[in-house]
Structure formats: structure tokens, C-alpha cells
Amino acid sequence: MNILFIGSSGPLSLAPLQVLLDSEHDLVAVGLDANRDSFLADPRVSIIAAENETIDILARMTGTPVINLYAPLPQCVREISRLRPDIVIVSCFERVLPAEILSLPKYGCFNLHPSLLPAYRGPVPLFWQLRDGSENTGISLHRMTSKIDAGPVVAQAPVTLPDGVSNVQALSLLAQRGSELLLRFLDQLENGDVIERIQDERAASYMGFPRDADFRVSTDWPARRIYNFINATGHWGKGYPCELDGRQCMLAQAESYTDSTTASGTAAKDENTVVLRCNPGILVARLAV
Hints:
29% of the residues lie in helices and 23% in strands. It contains eight helices and eleven strands.
């Protein structure tokens, strides 16, 4: 099966690409946005490259052709048409694929999305799941349509994220599970065994890019929720406004938490450390300096 893979830097693209390279499927090219600087300069977008490794480098190391999807649409359509992919796999790509590209491959275009769709559609679903303290994290593979993240789901699996996980660690866990789903789906597709499940619009939610106000935390939250949210979103480089004893403070790091409602054995180490009584639990955090 001829596959065109489209993605960006980071584990959510790197892991599926590596799995495809190691498989028996024919990866005809890797598509990326060659104007990545424009995205890195956009404060709404947070991209982390893993150990100087990008899908561009990985593709070129293996001799896989790379196409620039930042080029004008007619040029992109011509290049993809020339490759004649049977299927397009997308994972962590910041652009919306137009209808002209969605209609090109024989089997269609499919996207790995880091949430259990139809919940948390949108560009940064992991942020919102952590902010909400959701326990229902996971990965979905769905057919791409004109409506963002709304196409039928062909594979889905829950992924448990450990406490204190970083963004890269969380995405790596999601990417690993997603890669397994992807390989199984490709086998099913070749055997004609794919079942597409229409998403329930009544259960759907869409969240866009976070604003500064969305980084605010509250002691009305469980301590565990604040701890995990701060640890997994620190790469955004934002502070975390919080009200403490009637005054506003800015948290920078979350050091530890306990579910206990008493502060026994928990104390501030220095003037830049605070102890927050939450609902429930206690959080020890560092103030922004």
C-alpha cells in the first residue's frame, strides 16, 4: 500500500513515521510544512522537537522523499497526485487539509488525534484534557472530512497518563498507542475489515488555542489536577495565576502534591515556595520570580 505521511516535529509525528518506515508498507513520501518558523513564531502554537530529531531528518536519513506542503495549493495537489498514494496518514499537522487533497488518495485521509473523539476536537486537545483533569485520555484514528476532527472513527484506545507527566512524555505514550492502532488499521484496510463509527455529535466538544486566562488555576481544584496540569503544560512558557489567601500570585512549577487534607509534613522550603490547600489535597509549588 502506498502511503503519504504528513506531520511535524515532536513524538506524535515521529513515532508513527518510524513505525511506518519499519513496516512492510510503501512510504512514498513525507509531507511537512517547510515554513515551520512561521508556526514557531505563532504564540498559539507550541512545538517541541525531540533531541534535534524531526520528521524531515528522519525521512531524509531513510531516503524517503519530502514534499513541502507550504507551497501553493495547486503545486501541492500536483506533487501528491504524482505520488499516487493509496492513503494519507496525518499526525500532528498544524494545517487543515483542503478538499482538493482529501479527495486524492484511493482510501482517503486519516488522522491520529490525541483524544477519545468526539470529545476534545481541536488543535491542542491534550492541553484541555489536562486542564479539565480528565481521566478519559486516549488516542483516536479517524477519517478526515471537511469538518475538523469530526470524521468517522476507525480505531480508538484509552491511554493512562501517570502523575507529573511532561508534554513530551504524554505525547510519546499517546503516539506509541496510536502507532499500534495505525498498523492494525492498515492491515484491516488491506483485508477489507475496517469498521467506521460515526461520531456522536451530541457528545462532541471543540476547543481552540488557549488564551493566557486559560492557564489560571484554582485551589477549588484537586491538588492532583493542578499538579498534572502545570507539569504537562510548562513547555508553553506561561505562568499560572492563582489566588492564595486573598492575594494573587503566579505559580511557575508544581513540585509535589498529596491527596491528604492536612498539611502535616508539608511545608514551604523557602520564600519562593508556597503550600496551597486545595479541594481536596495540598500542593507544593514554586512561585514565578
